[in-house]
User: What shape does this take?
Amino acid sequence: EKGGYKHFMHKEIHEQPRAIADTLRGRMLLSEGDVHFDTWNLSLEQVKSFTKVTILACGTSWHSGVAGKHMIESLARLPVEVELASEFRYRDPIVEKSHLVIAISQSGETADTLGAFKEAKRLGAHTLAICNVIGSAMTRESDLHILTNAGPEIGVASTKAFTTQLVTLYLLAVKLGRMRGTLSVEGAQEHLTQLAQVPKMIEDVLKCEPQVKRVAREFMNAQDFLFLGRGPMHPVALEGALKLKEISYIHAEGYAGGEMKHGPIALIDEKMPVVVIAPKHPHVAYEKIIGNIEEVRARGGKVIAVIDEDDTQADTLADHVIRIPAASALLAPVVATIPLQLLAYHVAEMRGNDVDQPRNLAKSVTVE
Ligand code: F6R
Assistant: This one.
């Protein structure tokens, strides 16, 4: 059932082109420049009346929420707040009827997310659940649900659930943008054309695996890792660090590049590998992230740069480069996550860890 792979996680990483194609299937109306969700039940009036979006999630799903904020704010011009569900539910949150509250959850059963979601509903918000598991509690509790269609995810460390959440959020951002009139038909068509290319791009980026394995071998005994990214690459940095922690048990931190000088720079020495996610795009403040690479190098740190295929600048500065196909700023998180999943997988595998069942973790966290 592992389809020739040693671990489910590895299989699920390689399933992503197919999983994302399933997320997109039947939902892109290219000629109309619109998105179709068969469960959709929000009227134009309702969508126009929303004043705010609050995203509730935990762990990896929270990271997709942070990326989703960039998508929804940029295409639908609605302010988005991304909240850790476990924090939201234990304070006195501000929720109004004009708020759209989105829960993101692979399992649809995470106790903290479900608790926060029910609280938001009780306070009168309109609720939307983005889940992978059909019939799960969150899909039942919500006013509207959208499935990610990744197929069953068995590895405890989330991979295809994450990238399909990103793609679902992108589709949602296009849909909201069209309904709110912030996105033109032509604009939507452009976004949809790019989305349609994602399965092929993921196939291409998976070819970086031999290079990622070399990096994994060199750093498999490191004690700490730092991951840096800016803008939409910030959640990718957080996710890269979480994946590595979970299955390799190496301490790792994800940081927004601009924050490095406010603390984590003190950690850098010759032993410290720093993964810098630096696709070339103005939204990602490429020149600034190049500055981060220089700062790390000046202190003897080892830089592993995830860069566009045609990049010639970061190339000369980094110790190792992992090249990925160039994607738009909003899509780059989907593409750039793949090498980080592979890095975590290979480091953990080389260390002899139980990749699919990491210690102390459960696939579905139903305790609060
Ligand atoms: C990380 C991971 C966890 C989950 C989190 C939320 O690889 O799997 O961080 O993302 O427990 O789970 P769901 O998405 O099921 O609510």
Notes: The pocket of fructose -6-phosphate is lined by residues 58-61, 105-107, 110, 113, 157-158, 242, 246, 364-365 (CB under 6 Å). The two ends are 32 Å apart (CA to CA). DSSP finds 15 helices and twelve strands in the chain.
